[in-house]
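dude i think i finally got it to work??
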Amino acid sequence: MTTLPPIDGGRARDLVGRFAGLPVLVVGDVMLDRFVVGRVTRISPEAPVPIVRFESEHTRLGGAANVAHNIAALGGRASLVGIVGQDAAAGTLRAQLAAAGIDAAGLVADAARPTTEKVRVVTERNQQVARIDYERDTDAGGEIEQALVAQVARLAGGARALLVSDYLKGAITRPVIEALLRAGTPLIVDPKIPHLACYAGATLVTPNHHEAEVATHFRIRTDADARQAARDFRTRAQCGGVLITRGEHGMWLSAETVEGSIPARAREVSDVTGAGDTVVATLALALAAGATSAEAAALANQAAGIVVGKFGPATLTAAELGASF
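look at this
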């Protein structure tokens, strides 16, 4: 099997140095991640569950909002299109987006659904005890879908790369994808398999190991399996290229002019939450900066290796990424 050659350090740093100010439009399911942190010292006498003594609480951007946050942290200029409710969580989300320097004017308010919010109860050692989800995940339609399409049409023309972050929470529909494709700009999709038919025409789709298996009905155990699954995925999705993320096994890239594996970067793993968001954000900026698909994948692989050493939906800076080569 083919292992793609590593990217030259000087070339990598040059590409990362071009990230500053590159405009990227992110379209997808925005979320708010709330963490309730406490100490566990005993089990409840009422039920066999731990009692968590509250110590602190904090929120972070999640889903497509975390993708946009990754782009901004890497120096890019992120714009965001998605759906929020008309609730307190939407206000918190907008405030955090503003603090991160992300253009949130493309958010569409839907009074019929709550802002998607995931509340995680965790211990002081970052062990998750429970999660509560506030959401309505029906696909957007009618006026809300039309508003999303209008925002895409307004913002896509000024972007150097377009990015879809699909979490099956309602923002991504075929008309929204078609509006992105009309811009004629490279389109990267972080997919969910029930929407596979929606992604036809995308430049690069980034399923994880499990998603690729589900889409192709093919078990992936070796590089040869990954190659076949990637080829089948490209055919089924009718997209230009596929990058399968395989955790500790690295990645497999299958595009029109290049194919091969990218070995994982050996690092201590703290939390894989949001690593896929970092991958697609880095891919988008790298392609906007003039990288080949293989170079973009190598940068994304390096970036993912850094963020999995951090807790929660984390980000990294261009300086961190450049210094790692």
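The two ends are 25 Å apart (CA to CA).
im so relieved honestly
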